[in-house]
Amino acid sequence: MAGYFAKRKFIAVGETGLDFYWDLTFKDQQYEAFHQQVEWALQYDIPVVIHSRNSTDECIQLIHEHQDGRLKGVFHCFSGTAEQANQVVDWAFTSYRRVLTFKNAGLDIAIKDIDLASIVLETDAPYLARVPYRGKRNESSYIQYVVQKLGLIKNISAKK
Question: Residue 72 above 60 pLDDT?
Answer without folding.
Answer: yes
